């Protein structure tokens, strides 16, 4: 398979199988900010998303905030088109909760599509126990994590990967 | 409105599909006559519109923000404004207050950007130099006012597309806050207040909207 015009051929894992994606076909549009580590924040609350964004930006990261799919929508990550933002993120903070099937599908898609990307999941002990397969492989943080604490966690994970 | 064609690859695919669709429409028209040709065109057009409408509902917008630029004690503010800069009381009053509020505890650095708006007539008669000179004057006056109030400020003319102007500035200046100045009852050619919601949908940064209520008296000869 060759990349289309403007696209980049990228190998990753989707639903447990190796797959190749032409990043030019992904949506939403790719990150406009290049050259620095990028953190995707999955948070439905815009003001909380801005607070995490501010702390992460101050630490030198480019940030994307995704509110997750609404009940009537589906996440492009779970569909054929994929998500360029998630694709190119160096770390993900997932705070959509485990309460809806759509949110759980987002986390599952993130885990299966990008197994090498560090994912920090905000979940209670009860949620982790109820959905062990979702929490497995992720760094679970207790709800209401402080932005500075998240910055430290992301920094540690990326430093171990040489992406800090 | 968001462009349904999001990148070069999609534009290429759209062109290819258009060529194929028109090939089919032409073949149907040649073989079956005008009416089947029109029907084929209608079906192809409806299919394309439905495809893009359905895809447009697939997800909510993802907002992005570049990394902080400059020293840790620095807060950068991008001021996007066009005709509203002519309202010096707004610039010296509420704009200065808003900058001081948003940069409290930090060293403020401000960049005033004026998207170069031109009227259709000016565009057709290529009077871009006149529009640029007027915009430059407004920016320069605003920069001087902000400097008087102690803000380290520079100014420039930005892209005609205000959203693009913001994105350009975020790449080069890397603002921590954005303040948009528009006029109450903006006229054609002035900065449209809808830019605020568009920017909030696209950028994960605090965005403040200040509205100039007054309109300066036209200069008398």
Provide a descriptive summary of the structure in words:
The complex is a heterodimer of chains A (164) and B (221). Chain A is of the alpha/beta class. Chain A is 33% helix and 20% strand. Chain A contains six helices and seven strands. In chain A, helix 1 links the parallel strand 3 and strand 4. In chain A, helix 1 packs across helix 6. The longest helix of chain A is centred in the last third of the chain and has 14 residues. The model of chain B has no long low-confidence stretch (mean pLDDT 84). The longest helix of chain B has 25 residues. Chain B is 49% helix and 18% strand. Chain B has seven helices and six strands, in the order H-H-E-E-H-E-H-H-E-H-E-H-E. Chain B has 221 residues and is of the alpha/beta class. The radius of gyration of chain B is 23 Å and the shape is elongated. Chains A and B meet through helix 1 and strand 4 of A and helix 1, strand 1 and helix 6 of B. Strand 4 of chain A pairs antiparallel with strand 1 of chain B.
Summarize the structure.
The complex is a heterodimer of chains A (164) and B (221). Chain A contains six helices and seven strands, in the order βββαβαβαβααβα.
